[in-house]
Amino acid sequence: MRGPMSDTHADRENGSYDVIVLGAGPVGQNVADRARAAGLGVAVVERELVGGECSYWACVPSKALLRPVIAVADARRVDGAREAVTGRLGTGGVFGRRNRYVTDWDDSGQAAFVTSLGADLFRGLGRLDGPRRVTVTGDDGTTHHLTARHAVALATGSRPVLPDIPGMAEARPWTNRQGTDSSTVPARLAVVGGGGVGVEMATLWQGLGSQVSLLARRPLLPRMEPFAGELVADGLAKAGADVRIGAEVAALHRPDPRGPVTLTLADGSRLEADEVMFATGRAPRTDDIGLETVGLTPGSWLDVDTTCLVAGVEGAWLYAVGDVNHRALLTHQGKYQGRTAGDAMAARAAGRPLDDAPWGDHATTADQHAVPQVFFTDPEAAAVGLSAEQAVRAGHRTKSVDVDFTAAQGANLYADGYRGKARMVVDLDREVLLGVTFVGPGVSELLHSATVAVAAEVPLKRLRHAIACFPTVSEIWLFLLAAYERG
Known about the structure:
By secondary structure, the chain is α/β, with parallel strands linked by helices. It has helices at residues 9-13, 26-37, 52-57, 59-75, 91-101, 108-116, 168-171, 176-181, 196-207, 226-238, 331-350, 366-369, 388-393, 409-414, 447-455, 460-463, 476-486, and strands at 16-22, 42-46, 120-123, 125-128, 133-137, 143-154, 158-160, 188-192, 211-216, 242-245, 249-253, 261-265, 270-273, 275-278, 282-284, 318-320, 372-375, 380-385, 398-404, 421-427, 432-440. The strands form five sheets. Strands 1, 2, 3, 4, 5, 6 and 16 form a seven-stranded mixed beta sheet that branches. Strands 17-18-21-20-19 form a five-stranded antiparallel beta sheet, sandwiched between helices. It has a four-stranded parallel beta sheet with strand order 10-9-8-14. Strand 12 (261-265) and strand 13 form a beta hairpin. Helix 4 (59-75) crosses helix 9 (196-207).
């Protein structure tokens, strides 16, 4: 087997590369970047837009759209500023802002970035064709046969799942794609699903002028501390949304394609909306990428080890990074996996020992211990690590400390009548943090400090010496630590 610097023009002409990456979203780009930095020859394959779901239909457009909504809400929380806020949001400006950040769905800039790394970009559907082989079929029917000397990385992401409900096809529902690329504000929007996508889309479209009904079978944000979903639900209700917990859609009816859609709920009640959006789960985009040619089940989530190698495939060559391994369906976590996997590929290609012990260079340890997530609702909800319930289930001896943000003068100066709550979950045996949750305006910018504390296992006796500036929202750390010390 040739070494990592074996990439030559002749090899590339023959379709031979050290690493082949399926999927050119942020995750795949990070794999390619790390592999190229190590001198490996890389091919990247993309079936849609280079930049992936995150860049065009998820993280980027949703945050571009949400920021004006939250900015106005923040201004209205400050005496003197609220008087200057008149009228409604300019939807043309909001949608234009979104269009700029998604570059009008033109991926030429991101394609240029991939090629600037020295990687070859192939457009089309990439499918495994046995061990280390990939066939790429372009939209025009052209076919390229590629071979990987060292690794193939699957970074194909996930897609929305629509539940099997009568009338679904007739209703022509929105998913996250229509929720972020639409430039028309429906008068009435029903959002089904109380996870991160559902609550963000409810916040967005209510802020843009829709009358939103949010329907969720369980409390909102079920993977966070319970108070997070409660405060977000309260914020949505105060903004005018109709939040229904315990609601389940049993059927849909839309006889006129241009008319309203009727939702029949499990309790027999009905709701009419101009559009309905489902945010009820995701499935891996692995159904048509040739998994069966290497002994795996098409359409399945892929089990991986700490270096993101796929289980059940011999030869240490197939990796799955990002959504497809189902560890954390978050762009930043997938990028972390991509960097780690790219480094592991380079080490294996060069015959170097792997540093795959916990917190090693080739170990995605944070996937189990320090996953940060933020939902840009009003109020924002941010968390890292384990919730109190998750920590107990994992067998830790814990103590949870709760503090209301009104204790911090910085929070009160940030917003008059600031409402929010923070919790830290402490491992009593080691006196380090297992998890932290913040809910309140502007708390997303507090999360990285919590992530550092959880990932680095900073002892609480040392953490108390990390002084928060006065008067900032981050003073909440002082009150959390003081509450813990008081017992």
